[in-house]
Amino acid sequence: MPIIGVCNQPFYRKHNDGSYEGRYIWGYNIDHICRNNINQSMIKSESDIILIGGKESIELKDRINKFAKTMYVAGAGHKLLNVAVGKADLLLTSSKSTYYWDTCAIHAILRSIGGGIIPFENFIHMNDVIDKQLEHSQIRYREKTMTTKNIECNHSKGMIAYRSIDAVRKTLNLLKT
């Protein structure tokens, strides 16, 4: 599991002259010692926004829209960064089109704020003892042999990226009703 992550956001703010200002977001979780440079005072406790992949079913979107606003944001890294900085509570995607290099740095940052990334497939089967299951369900990275299609390096079970256990618990309970 990644312990340190740094993410560059090159187009963080646009200036009046048309130029852009970038920023770095970093975080670490080493033996439960967590630090990051995310300004927590700027983040609402819950945004009620769930980011989704572009290939999610209408049925899933409709179920989520009953209790939260769904938004599609392009790019895996951009979606994950929005969860890390509090613009969304969760990223939910059943797609297999996200790769290890898209998630590794942000995974460490999410872990530094009490969040994480779990396989979508595991999420659907979780029960009320979610707190204990989340730690053991975290996506694991392992060395794979590179292939021409990089199939060995994708998150083949989809993924859920989250900021807090409460967001996961709330979403799971509402999806099961």
UniProtKB/TrEMBL annotation:
Positions with a binding annotation for Mg(2+): 102
A UniProt-annotated Pfam family: Inositol_P
GO MF annotations, alphabetized: inositol-1,4-bisphosphate 1-phosphatase activity; metal ion binding
Keyword Magnesium: yes
Keyword annotations: Magnesium, Metal-binding
Cofactor(s) the protein requires to work: Mg(2+)
PANTHER family, per database record: 3'(2'),5'-BISPHOSPHATE NUCLEOTIDASE 1, INOSITOL POLYPHOSPHATE 1-PHOSPHATASE
Homology family: Belongs to the inositol monophosphatase superfamily.
Protein name: Inositol polyphosphate 1-phosphatase-like protein
Organism: Euroglyphus maynei (Mayne's house dust mite)
Lineage start: Eukaryota, Metazoa, Ecdysozoa, Arthropoda, Chelicerata
